[in-house]
Design brief:
With 228 residues, the chain is mainly alpha-helical. The chain is 77% helix and 2% strand. It has one domain. The two termini are 29 Å apart.
Length: 228
């Protein structure tokens, strides 16, 4: 009875952790200078008023550096343009909030990695559970696929609703709403977030399909060996 309960818990944790783990894994890709260069380099990406291409990339890289490191908000607050500081106080306050949210996301990603490792370890230690590992990975990938199809469809058909409610979940009031002339909007217009959300969903979807395919193949091979 105890063995069955342990297996059930391990499998449940594994299945439920996979979607969020895969999604957060790709956060590292989209919060990188490489993605900035890719996005800004697209022929149809809108220009940024008041910035040359080189200046826009440089400032955006500093924003990513702030979010991904221990440096203070001064890295952005000290930036000056022709008319004074590049970022208003409201923008800097929002970036502080964003850093808190992304820090928590990275923490959750690490914890889920430990949960997945623990669950796999339990299933490997207990005998005759290889097929259960494959089945759990397949179920996790299928759950990810279902959720991602829904999210990607929402992004494509009603991005404004998705974008607004996403911010309402993680940020207070109108702290995330800015004027078109603000630096954050000039650096990261709606097109930037639409592309990022679309690619993020599609990439995670592709990873889930690959994981499901590997799990299905492994399950079949294990079943054939057991039948011999």
């Amino acid at each position: 009875m105890l063995r069955k309960s342990i297996l059930t818990i391990a499998r449940t944790l594994l299945v439920l952790s996979i979607p969020v783990f895969l999604l957060l894994t790709n956060l590292y890709i989209f919060m990188s200078p490489a993605f900035l260069r890719y996005e800004y380099g697209r022929a149809d990406f809108p220009p940024s008023p008041g910035f040359t291409d080189e200046e826009r990339l440089m400032v955006a890289k500093k924003a990513v550096t702030y979010l991904r490191s221990d440096v203070g908000i001064e890295i952005l607050g000290d930036l000056e343009g022709e008319e004074g500081p590049l970022f208003r106080e409201k923008e800097l306050a929002h970036m502080v909030d964003v850093k808190v949210v992304t820090g928590r996301a990275f923490l959750v990603h690490g914890l889920l990695g430990l949960v997945i490792a623990f669950s796999l370890g339990v299933l490997l230690v207990i005998r005759d559970t290889r097929t259960q590992i494959s089945a759990s990975l397949l179920q996790g990938s299928l759950l990810t696929i279902v959720l991602l199809i829904a999210v990607v469809a929402l992004v494509y058909f009603n991005f404004n609703w998705f974008f607004t409610h996403f911010h309402l979940v993680f940020f207070e009031g109108d702290s995330w709403i800015f004027d078109l002339s603000d630096t954050l909007i000039r650096l990261f217009p709606t097109r930037f977030w639409f592309d990022a959300a679309s690619l993020w969903g599609l990439l995670t979807l592709g990873e889930a399909v690959a994981l499901g395919g590997i799990a299905l193949l492994s399950n079949r091979l294990t079943s054939r060996r057991a039948a011999r």
